[in-house]
């Protein structure tokens, strides 16, 4: 047998892709401590914490409006299953965390959907889980968005922004059924 045949079977790793957006990123640089575009390993038994306290949080957001620990992610395997998931918990007493359409108060937690948008304050984070098999660790892969995630993904925003800057009330025909007209009329 060759060394290739004797080699251990390569194990895939669950990876959580997170794309961050804040409207003031260019000026305030609140993501400057995040390691973008590089996979980072996290032990399976470790909580991935996001917030402004660098002594507690692995992922630091440099913004005084962010809680010391804003939220945490726990990697786990579902009971009687080989499926791995993440659980998200709001750790902020002052700010609600919205995961897709679900609002989480302090210490509330839910399973993180495979693809979702996490919002708090002006922060928007697109989270996408890539399945893997490793039980020892998972990976995070952080990205920076230049445009709002809610707008880019065509998902309903909490504060809709018309694309043309004009209010739909100026166009009363919008929202009505089309009227069929014979071309000879």
Automatic annotation (TrEMBL):
<dbReference type="Pfam" id="PF00498">
    <property type="entry name" value="FHA"/>
</dbReference>
<comment type="similarity">
    <text>Belongs to the TIFA family.</text>
</comment>
<dbReference type="InterPro" id="IPR000253">
    <property type="entry name" value="FHA_dom"/>
</dbReference>
<feature type="region of interest" description="Disordered">
    <location>
        <begin position="166"/>
        <end position="185"/>
    </location>
</feature>
<dbReference type="GO" id="GO:0043123">
    <property type="term" value="P:positive regulation of canonical NF-kappaB signal transduction"/>
</dbReference>
<dbReference type="GO" id="GO:0005737">
    <property type="term" value="C:cytoplasm"/>
</dbReference>
<dbReference type="InterPro" id="IPR008984">
    <property type="entry name" value="SMAD_FHA_dom_sf"/>
</dbReference>
<feature type="compositionally biased region" description="Polar residues">
    <location>
        <begin position="166"/>
        <end position="176"/>
    </location>
</feature>
<protein>
    <recommendedName>
        <fullName>TRAF-interacting protein with FHA domain-containing protein A</fullName>
    </recommendedName>
</protein>
<dbReference type="GO" id="GO:0045087">
    <property type="term" value="P:innate immune response"/>
</dbReference>
<dbReference type="InterPro" id="IPR033621">
    <property type="entry name" value="TIFA"/>
</dbReference>
<feature type="domain" description="FHA">
    <location>
        <begin position="49"/>
        <end position="121"/>
    </location>
</feature>
<keyword id="KW-0399">Innate immunity</keyword>
<keyword id="KW-0391">Immunity</keyword>
<keyword id="KW-0963">Cytoplasm</keyword>
